[in-house]
Amino acid sequence: MISLAPPVDSWLYPVGSGIYCEPGDFYIDPGRVVDRAVITHGHSDHARAGHRAVLATSETIEIMKVRYGEDCAGVFQPLAIGETIDINGVRVRLVPAGHILGSAQVVIEWAGRRAVISGDYKRASDPTCAPFELVTCDVFVTEATFALPVFRHEKARHEADKLLSSLRAEPDRTHLIGAYNLGKCQRMIRVVRDAGYDKPIYLHGAVVALTELYQKLGVDLGELLPVAGTDPKSMRGGIVMCPPSALGDRWSRRFGDPVNAFASGWMRVRGRARQLGVELPLVVSDHVDWPELIQTVIETEAQEIWVTHGREDALVHYLGTLGRKARALALVGYGEEAE
After folding, report:
1. Which residues belong to any copy of the Metallo-beta-lactamase domain (predicted)?
2. I need a surface site. Which of 25, 28, 285, 336 has the fewest CB within 10 A?
3. Alpha-carbon gap, residue 123 to 125, rounded angstroms
4. What is the pLDDT of residue 338?
C-alpha cells in the first residue's frame, strides 16, 4: 500500500540557521531569536539567549541560566526525558543524546511520520550524563563533526590512565588539562576519579561555574579547589583543569614548566597537537567517531539522513555509496565551540 502521509521535508525543514517544524510552529536549535525554540543542549552553537519561549531538559535550562543569566529567555518549559507533549497536534519528546549533561535528541511525530533531530551526540560511556538512546525513525538528522574514517576515538578510561602514568613519570610538573568548560571538563574530572585519582583537582576560573552546577545537579566530582589564591608550588604534580585557550597564554606561566595536555577528538590529528604545543594529547571526544556515526545511521533505519555541522559533504557521499538517501542541510552558524 502506498503511504499518503506527507513527506517529512514538507513540514520539517532548514531555515538558514535552524530547523523549523511548520505544523508545530517551533524551531530546533535556532541561531536567531524566535518565539518558540526547542533546545537540544547547552553549547552556544545550539542554545542561544533571547528566545521568547524555550523547551528543553531541566539540566539544559539550568546550564543556559548559568551561561546567559536567569532571564535569558522569556519562558522556560522543562520537559522530562521520555515525556511526550502535544504542540499544535505535533507529538514531541526528548530522549538522551549522551553528549553532555542534559543533552537530548528531539523526537517529532506528525501525520504518521517520525523525525529525530539528534543535536550533538555520542555513544561512548560517560558517567556525567545519560547514555544515548537509539530511536528508529523516517528521517534522522545527524551531526558530522568527525565524519571521516581517520577519526576513531579512544576510550576515555584509556586516556585517563595515560594521564595518570604521566603524573607518575613527571611528579614535579603540574599537568594542565585543556578541556572545554561545558561537558568535557566535568567528564575528564569524573573519568580521572574513576581511574583512581583522589587528590584535589584545581580549576581555572573559567570552568568553575559550570563545574559547580554539575555538582549541584548530582554529579560527584570529588574535591575541587580554585587556582585563584593558591600557591602554584602546591599544585606541582597535580591536575589543573582549564580552557584550551589558557594552555598557551600568560596564565599558564605561573606553573613554571607544566605538562600541557588537551582532551579533544581533534587530538587524533598529530599535526594539530604539535601546532598547538600539546605535549600530552588525550583523544577524548563528546561526539561520535566515524564507526559510531555509521553504526547509528544504519540502526535508526531512517529512509533519509540529513547531515549538519561538520564534514557534511563527505558523509553524504559515503552514505550514498551505501544506498542511503542523504542531504547536507548547510545550517548557518553551527559548529562545536571548542571540541
Report:
1. 14-180
2. 25
3. 7
4. 54
Torsion of CA 49, 289, 269, 143, to 10 degrees: -40
Q: What letter represents residue 76's amino acid? A: F
Backbone region of residue 102 per phi and psi (left: phi > 0; alpha: psi in -120 to 50; beta: other values): left
Q: Provide Rg for the chain, Cα atoms.
A: 21
Q: What is the mean pLDDT of the chain?
A: 94
What confidence tier does 1 reach under pLDDT thresholds 50, 70, 90?
very low
Architecture of domain 8-150+287-328: 4-Layer Sandwich (3.60)
Q: Note the maximum CA span of the chain.
A: 74
In CATH, what number does 156-282 get? Answer: 3.40.50
Q: What is the mean pLDDT of residues 105-115?
A: 98
Distance (Å, rounded) from C-alpha 126 to C-alpha 74?
32
Which of 296, 306, 311 has the alpha carbon at shortest distance from 265?
311
pTM (two decimals)? 0.94
pLDDT per position as a tens digit, 221-272: 999 999 999 999 999 999 999 999 999 899 999 999 999 999 999 999 989 8
Place of cell 511520520: 113
State the pLDDT confidence band at 286, using cuts at 50, 70 and 90: very high
User: Rounded distance, CA 60 to CA 80, Å?
Assistant: 11
Alpha-carbon distances of 82 from 93, 133, 138, rounded to whole Å: 6, 10, 19
Give the whole-angstrom CA distance, residue 81 versus residue 216. 19
- DSSP assignment letter at 202: E
**Whole-angstrom Cα distance, residue 247 to residue 167?**
17
- State the residue for C-alpha cell 575528564: 188
Burial class (CB in 10 A: 0-12, 13-18, 19+), 233: exposed
CB atoms within 10 A of CB 334: 20
- How far, rounded to the nearest angstrom, does the alpha carbon of residue 137 sit from its chain's CA centroid? 22
What region does 161 belong to: left with phi over 0, alpha with psi -120 to 50, or beta?
alpha
